[in-house]
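Practice problem: predict the structure.
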Amino acid sequence: MKTPRTPFSFSLRRLQKPRCLGRVSPSRSCFPLVWCRNYSTSNGPPSQEPNKLEALRRSIIARPPQLSWDVMSPTNSALLNIALNDYIPLSCQARAYQAGARGIETYSAQCELPEGHHLVYFPLQKTAKDLLADGTDPFPNPGYPYVRRMWAGGSIEFNNEFRLDSKPVVCKESIDDVTVKGTGDNEKIFVDMLRVYTTGDDFKSDDSQQPGSLPTGGRIRERRVLVFLRESPSSLKPDTGKVLGDPASNPAERERVVKAPNAPDFSITLTPTPTLLFQYSALTFNAHAIHLDPQYCREVEGRRGLLVHGPLSLTLMLSVLRSRLSPGEKVRKIDYRNLAPLYVNEPIRVCIRSVGYEDEEPGQRVRKWELWVEGKDGGLSVRGTARTV
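Answer:
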Protein backbone atom coordinates (compact mmCIF):
# COMPACT_ATOMS: atom_id res chain seq x y z
CA MET A 1 0.00 0.00 0.00
CA LYS A 2 1.35 3.42 -0.87
CA THR A 3 2.41 5.64 2.00
CA PRO A 4 0.14 8.71 2.32
CA ARG A 5 1.79 11.98 1.48
CA THR A 6 2.06 14.65 4.14
CA PRO A 7 2.09 18.45 3.75
CA PHE A 8 5.85 18.34 4.32
CA SER A 9 6.63 15.40 2.01
CA PHE A 10 9.62 15.75 -0.27
CA SER A 11 10.38 14.00 -3.51
CA LEU A 12 12.32 10.92 -2.47
CA ARG A 13 13.96 10.67 -5.89
CA ARG A 14 15.80 13.95 -5.35
CA LEU A 15 16.92 12.76 -1.91
CA GLN A 16 18.81 9.71 -3.11
CA LYS A 17 22.02 11.72 -3.58
CA PRO A 18 22.99 15.29 -2.75
CA ARG A 19 22.94 17.73 -5.60
CA CYS A 20 26.16 19.42 -4.48
CA LEU A 21 28.72 17.02 -5.89
CA GLY A 22 31.89 17.71 -7.80
CA ARG A 23 33.03 21.20 -8.64
CA VAL A 24 30.38 23.86 -8.58
CA SER A 25 30.05 27.48 -9.52
CA PRO A 26 31.67 29.92 -7.05
CA SER A 27 28.24 31.52 -6.64
CA ARG A 28 26.89 28.38 -5.03
CA SER A 29 27.36 27.68 -1.32
CA CYS A 30 28.08 23.98 -1.83
CA PHE A 31 31.64 22.76 -1.48
CA PRO A 32 33.52 20.66 -4.03
CA LEU A 33 34.15 17.04 -3.26
CA VAL A 34 37.91 16.93 -2.90
CA TRP A 35 38.28 13.24 -2.17
CA CYS A 36 36.38 10.04 -2.84
CA ARG A 37 37.07 6.36 -2.74
CA ASN A 38 35.39 3.16 -3.83
CA TYR A 39 33.30 1.62 -1.06
CA SER A 40 32.37 -1.98 -0.42
CA THR A 41 29.52 -3.30 1.68
CA SER A 42 31.87 -5.19 3.97
CA ASN A 43 32.74 -4.10 7.48
CA GLY A 44 36.45 -4.52 6.85
CA PRO A 45 39.07 -1.79 7.26
CA PRO A 46 38.77 1.30 5.03
CA SER A 47 40.83 1.29 1.89
CA GLN A 48 41.74 4.97 1.64
CA GLU A 49 45.28 6.13 2.13
CA PRO A 50 45.96 8.22 5.26
CA ASN A 51 47.14 11.20 3.21
CA LYS A 52 43.84 11.30 1.28
CA LEU A 53 41.87 11.23 4.53
CA GLU A 54 44.02 14.03 5.91
CA ALA A 55 43.46 16.03 2.71
CA LEU A 56 39.70 15.71 3.19
CA ARG A 57 40.01 16.79 6.82
CA ARG A 58 42.12 19.82 5.98
CA SER A 59 39.84 20.89 3.16
CA ILE A 60 36.81 20.91 5.48
CA ILE A 61 38.62 22.81 8.24
CA ALA A 62 39.89 25.35 5.69
CA ARG A 63 36.38 26.44 4.70
CA PRO A 64 36.00 30.16 5.54
CA PRO A 65 33.83 31.08 8.56
CA GLN A 66 30.20 32.07 8.15
CA LEU A 67 28.75 35.23 9.72
CA SER A 68 25.07 35.35 10.65
CA TRP A 69 23.60 38.70 11.69
CA ASP A 70 20.33 39.07 13.55
CA VAL A 71 18.42 41.49 15.76
CA MET A 72 17.88 40.51 19.40
CA SER A 73 14.15 41.15 19.21
CA PRO A 74 11.85 39.62 21.85
CA THR A 75 9.85 37.98 19.03
CA ASN A 76 11.80 34.72 18.71
CA SER A 77 12.13 34.18 22.46
CA ALA A 78 8.44 34.95 23.03
CA LEU A 79 7.38 32.55 20.27
CA LEU A 80 9.57 29.81 21.75
CA ASN A 81 7.84 30.32 25.11
CA ILE A 82 4.47 30.03 23.37
CA ALA A 83 5.55 26.88 21.51
CA LEU A 84 6.68 25.20 24.76
CA ASN A 85 3.70 26.35 26.82
CA ASP A 86 1.63 23.17 26.42
CA TYR A 87 4.57 20.82 27.02
CA ILE A 88 6.46 22.10 30.08
CA PRO A 89 5.24 23.43 33.45
CA LEU A 90 5.21 27.17 34.09
CA SER A 91 8.12 26.78 36.54
CA CYS A 92 10.32 25.70 33.61
CA GLN A 93 9.39 28.62 31.40
CA ALA A 94 11.49 31.76 31.00
CA ARG A 95 11.31 34.14 33.95
CA ALA A 96 9.70 36.91 31.90
CA TYR A 97 7.00 34.49 30.77
CA GLN A 98 6.38 33.40 34.36
CA ALA A 99 6.08 37.06 35.35
CA GLY A 100 3.27 37.61 32.85
CA ALA A 101 5.04 38.63 29.65
CA ARG A 102 2.96 36.45 27.34
CA GLY A 103 2.69 38.71 24.31
CA ILE A 104 5.60 40.14 22.36
CA GLU A 105 4.47 43.69 23.15
CA THR A 106 4.79 43.05 26.91
CA TYR A 107 8.56 42.39 26.87
CA SER A 108 10.92 45.00 28.24
CA ALA A 109 14.18 45.84 26.48
CA GLN A 110 15.88 44.99 29.79
CA CYS A 111 14.71 41.36 29.71
CA GLU A 112 17.60 38.92 29.57
CA LEU A 113 17.71 36.28 26.86
CA PRO A 114 17.02 32.97 28.67
CA GLU A 115 19.72 30.31 28.47
CA GLY A 116 19.19 28.22 25.35
CA HIS A 117 16.97 30.74 23.59
CA HIS A 118 19.87 31.90 21.43
CA LEU A 119 19.27 28.67 19.48
CA VAL A 120 16.21 30.25 17.82
CA TYR A 121 18.18 33.28 16.63
CA PHE A 122 20.88 33.57 13.93
CA PRO A 123 18.99 31.50 11.31
CA LEU A 124 20.70 30.00 8.31
CA GLN A 125 20.43 32.67 5.61
CA LYS A 126 20.53 30.59 2.43
CA THR A 127 17.97 30.07 -0.30
CA ALA A 128 16.42 26.68 -1.03
CA LYS A 129 18.65 26.10 -4.04
CA ASP A 130 21.73 26.60 -1.85
CA LEU A 131 20.70 23.85 0.58
CA LEU A 132 21.43 20.16 0.20
CA ALA A 133 18.69 17.79 -0.96
CA ASP A 134 17.70 16.92 2.63
CA GLY A 135 17.28 20.61 3.49
CA THR A 136 20.55 21.04 5.42
CA ASP A 137 23.41 23.51 5.19
CA PRO A 138 26.26 22.33 2.91
CA PHE A 139 28.86 24.26 4.96
CA PRO A 140 29.92 21.37 7.27
CA ASN A 141 28.96 18.53 4.91
CA PRO A 142 31.89 16.26 3.87
CA GLY A 143 30.22 15.26 0.59
CA TYR A 144 28.86 12.02 -0.82
CA PRO A 145 28.53 9.25 0.44
CA TYR A 146 28.15 10.91 3.89
CA VAL A 147 24.59 12.06 3.28
CA ARG A 148 22.87 11.36 6.62
CA ARG A 149 23.44 14.10 9.18
CA MET A 150 22.80 13.86 12.94
CA TRP A 151 23.49 16.14 15.92
CA ALA A 152 26.02 14.31 18.15
CA GLY A 153 26.43 16.76 21.02
CA GLY A 154 28.34 19.84 22.08
CA SER A 155 28.83 22.44 24.79
CA ILE A 156 27.77 26.02 25.55
CA GLU A 157 29.56 28.60 27.70
CA PHE A 158 27.48 31.57 28.87
CA ASN A 159 29.98 34.39 29.45
CA ASN A 160 27.66 37.40 29.40
CA GLU A 161 23.97 37.88 28.81
CA PHE A 162 22.11 39.29 25.83
CA ARG A 163 19.18 41.66 26.33
CA LEU A 164 15.99 41.55 24.28
CA ASP A 165 16.64 45.14 23.22
CA SER A 166 16.26 44.71 19.42
CA LYS A 167 19.91 45.63 18.80
CA PRO A 168 22.11 43.98 16.15
CA VAL A 169 23.89 40.76 17.14
CA VAL A 170 26.20 38.46 15.22
CA CYS A 171 27.32 34.83 15.23
CA LYS A 172 30.58 33.65 13.69
CA GLU A 173 30.60 29.96 12.79
CA SER A 174 33.76 28.07 11.88
CA ILE A 175 34.86 24.44 11.55
CA ASP A 176 37.32 23.63 14.32
CA ASP A 177 38.07 19.94 13.82
CA VAL A 178 37.14 16.89 11.76
CA THR A 179 37.58 13.24 12.81
CA VAL A 180 36.72 9.91 11.20
CA LYS A 181 35.57 6.91 13.24
CA GLY A 182 34.50 3.40 12.33
CA THR A 183 35.11 1.30 9.24
CA GLY A 184 33.14 0.08 6.25
CA ASP A 185 29.40 0.72 6.44
CA ASN A 186 29.83 2.07 9.98
CA GLU A 187 32.33 4.78 9.02
CA LYS A 188 31.32 8.22 10.31
CA ILE A 189 32.73 11.72 9.97
CA PHE A 190 32.45 14.02 13.00
CA VAL A 191 32.60 17.76 12.32
CA ASP A 192 33.28 20.01 15.31
CA MET A 193 31.74 23.46 14.80
CA LEU A 194 32.63 26.54 16.85
CA ARG A 195 30.05 29.34 17.14
CA VAL A 196 30.81 32.63 18.89
CA TYR A 197 27.94 35.06 19.58
CA THR A 198 28.24 38.71 20.49
CA THR A 199 26.61 42.10 20.02
CA GLY A 200 27.06 44.28 16.99
CA ASP A 201 28.78 46.87 19.20
CA ASP A 202 31.38 44.30 20.26
CA PHE A 203 31.99 43.15 16.73
CA LYS A 204 35.20 44.45 15.18
CA SER A 205 36.16 44.43 11.52
CA ASP A 206 39.59 42.97 10.84
CA ASP A 207 41.10 43.17 7.36
CA SER A 208 43.59 40.43 8.21
CA GLN A 209 40.87 37.89 8.99
CA GLN A 210 37.98 37.83 6.56
CA PRO A 211 35.10 38.30 6.80
CA GLY A 212 35.57 39.67 10.33
CA SER A 213 36.68 38.85 13.83
CA LEU A 214 34.94 38.59 17.16
CA PRO A 215 36.15 38.99 20.72
CA THR A 216 37.83 35.74 21.76
CA GLY A 217 35.19 34.57 24.21
CA GLY A 218 32.05 36.24 22.93
CA ARG A 219 28.93 36.54 25.07
CA ILE A 220 28.09 32.93 24.26
CA ARG A 221 30.61 30.38 23.02
CA GLU A 222 29.16 27.15 21.63
CA ARG A 223 30.55 23.96 20.19
CA ARG A 224 28.38 21.72 18.04
CA VAL A 225 29.43 18.27 16.94
CA LEU A 226 27.67 16.96 13.83
CA VAL A 227 28.07 13.38 12.65
CA PHE A 228 27.69 12.42 9.00
CA LEU A 229 26.77 8.81 8.26
CA ARG A 230 27.27 6.98 5.00
CA GLU A 231 24.41 6.32 2.64
CA SER A 232 23.59 2.73 3.50
CA PRO A 233 20.55 1.17 1.82
CA SER A 234 21.15 -2.06 3.76
CA SER A 235 20.34 -0.24 6.99
CA LEU A 236 16.70 0.04 5.93
CA LYS A 237 16.29 -3.75 6.13
CA PRO A 238 13.17 -3.90 3.93
CA ASP A 239 13.17 -7.69 3.83
CA THR A 240 12.92 -8.11 7.62
CA GLY A 241 10.70 -5.19 8.49
CA LYS A 242 13.32 -3.95 10.95
CA VAL A 243 13.99 -0.24 11.02
CA LEU A 244 17.29 1.34 11.98
CA GLY A 245 17.11 2.78 15.49
CA ASP A 246 13.86 1.01 16.38
CA PRO A 247 14.24 -1.19 19.49
CA ALA A 248 10.63 -2.31 19.12
CA SER A 249 11.45 -4.14 15.89
CA ASN A 250 15.01 -5.18 16.76
CA PRO A 251 15.59 -7.16 20.02
CA ALA A 252 19.37 -6.70 19.72
CA GLU A 253 18.95 -2.93 19.92
CA ARG A 254 16.53 -3.23 22.84
CA GLU A 255 19.18 -5.08 24.82
CA ARG A 256 21.57 -2.14 24.42
CA VAL A 257 19.34 0.34 26.27
CA VAL A 258 21.41 2.19 28.89
CA LYS A 259 19.71 3.49 32.03
CA ALA A 260 20.71 6.51 34.11
CA PRO A 261 22.79 5.44 37.14
CA ASN A 262 21.02 7.79 39.58
CA ALA A 263 17.48 8.92 40.31
CA PRO A 264 16.72 12.56 39.44
CA ASP A 265 15.97 15.28 41.96
CA PHE A 266 13.38 16.64 39.55
CA SER A 267 11.95 15.61 36.19
CA ILE A 268 9.20 16.43 33.72
CA THR A 269 7.56 14.19 31.14
CA LEU A 270 6.23 15.39 27.80
CA THR A 271 5.35 14.03 24.38
CA PRO A 272 6.71 16.03 21.43
CA THR A 273 4.12 16.37 18.67
CA PRO A 274 4.44 17.14 14.95
CA THR A 275 3.18 20.64 15.77
CA LEU A 276 6.02 21.26 18.24
CA LEU A 277 8.61 19.95 15.77
CA PHE A 278 7.21 22.13 12.99
CA GLN A 279 7.18 25.23 15.20
CA TYR A 280 10.76 24.63 16.33
CA SER A 281 11.85 24.06 12.73
CA ALA A 282 10.16 27.33 11.75
CA LEU A 283 11.75 29.28 14.62
CA THR A 284 15.22 27.98 13.72
CA PHE A 285 14.64 28.20 9.94
CA ASN A 286 15.55 24.51 9.81
CA ALA A 287 14.40 22.61 6.70
CA HIS A 288 16.02 19.26 7.61
CA ALA A 289 13.61 16.58 6.39
CA ILE A 290 14.15 14.30 9.42
CA HIS A 291 12.00 16.72 11.45
CA LEU A 292 9.29 17.31 8.83
CA ASP A 293 8.69 14.36 6.51
CA PRO A 294 7.78 10.93 7.98
CA GLN A 295 8.13 9.21 4.60
CA TYR A 296 11.67 10.53 4.21
CA CYS A 297 12.54 9.33 7.73
CA ARG A 298 11.35 5.80 6.98
CA GLU A 299 12.44 5.29 3.38
CA VAL A 300 15.69 7.28 3.25
CA GLU A 301 16.99 7.48 6.82
CA GLY A 302 15.58 4.16 8.00
CA ARG A 303 13.92 5.69 11.08
CA ARG A 304 10.50 4.81 12.42
CA GLY A 305 9.26 8.40 12.56
CA LEU A 306 10.13 12.09 12.78
CA LEU A 307 13.16 12.85 14.94
CA VAL A 308 13.17 15.46 17.70
CA HIS A 309 15.73 18.23 17.08
CA GLY A 310 18.99 17.99 19.00
CA PRO A 311 18.73 21.71 19.91
CA LEU A 312 15.15 21.18 21.12
CA SER A 313 16.17 18.50 23.61
CA LEU A 314 18.99 20.84 24.71
CA THR A 315 16.48 23.67 25.14
CA LEU A 316 14.31 21.41 27.29
CA MET A 317 17.24 20.44 29.54
CA LEU A 318 18.18 24.08 30.06
CA SER A 319 14.53 24.95 30.78
CA VAL A 320 14.36 22.31 33.52
CA LEU A 321 17.74 23.40 34.90
CA ARG A 322 16.63 27.04 35.14
CA SER A 323 13.62 26.00 37.21
CA ARG A 324 15.90 24.60 39.95
CA LEU A 325 18.22 27.60 40.29
CA SER A 326 18.24 29.99 43.23
CA PRO A 327 17.52 33.72 42.69
CA GLY A 328 20.52 35.29 40.96
CA GLU A 329 22.04 31.91 40.04
CA LYS A 330 22.91 31.48 36.36
CA VAL A 331 24.06 28.74 34.04
CA ARG A 332 27.76 29.04 33.28
CA LYS A 333 28.35 25.98 31.08
CA ILE A 334 26.62 22.88 29.79
CA ASP A 335 28.16 19.85 28.05
CA TYR A 336 25.99 17.17 26.46
CA ARG A 337 26.00 14.12 24.20
CA ASN A 338 23.14 12.74 22.11
CA LEU A 339 23.21 8.97 22.59
CA ALA A 340 20.02 7.79 20.87
CA PRO A 341 17.28 9.44 18.78
CA LEU A 342 14.07 10.80 20.28
CA TYR A 343 10.90 10.39 18.23
CA VAL A 344 7.74 12.38 17.71
CA ASN A 345 4.59 11.23 19.53
CA GLU A 346 6.65 9.21 22.02
CA PRO A 347 6.96 10.29 25.68
CA ILE A 348 10.30 11.61 26.88
CA ARG A 349 11.45 12.40 30.40
CA VAL A 350 13.79 15.34 31.12
CA CYS A 351 15.72 14.81 34.35
CA ILE A 352 18.08 16.81 36.56
CA ARG A 353 20.18 16.04 39.63
CA SER A 354 22.35 18.29 41.77
CA VAL A 355 25.75 16.73 42.54
CA GLY A 356 27.15 19.32 44.94
CA TYR A 357 29.38 22.38 45.06
CA GLU A 358 33.04 23.15 44.50
CA ASP A 359 35.19 26.26 44.90
CA GLU A 360 36.50 27.10 41.45
CA GLU A 361 38.08 30.45 42.26
CA PRO A 362 38.48 32.42 45.50
CA GLY A 363 35.05 33.69 46.44
CA GLN A 364 33.26 31.82 43.62
CA ARG A 365 31.34 28.66 44.37
CA VAL A 366 30.16 26.52 41.48
CA ARG A 367 27.22 24.12 41.65
CA LYS A 368 27.46 21.00 39.49
CA TRP A 369 24.52 19.20 37.87
CA GLU A 370 23.74 16.06 35.94
CA LEU A 371 21.10 16.33 33.22
CA TRP A 372 19.64 13.69 30.95
CA VAL A 373 16.71 12.84 28.70
CA GLU A 374 15.13 9.39 28.62
CA GLY A 375 13.26 7.92 25.67
CA LYS A 376 10.01 5.95 25.83
CA ASP A 377 11.85 2.81 27.00
CA GLY A 378 13.54 4.67 29.87
CA GLY A 379 16.95 4.50 28.22
CA LEU A 380 19.36 7.42 28.02
CA SER A 381 18.94 9.46 24.84
CA VAL A 382 20.78 12.62 25.92
CA ARG A 383 23.26 12.94 28.75
CA GLY A 384 24.94 16.09 30.02
CA THR A 385 26.54 18.02 32.85
CA ALA A 386 26.17 21.67 33.82
CA ARG A 387 27.80 24.24 36.08
CA THR A 388 25.98 27.18 37.62
CA VAL A 389 27.19 30.17 39.66
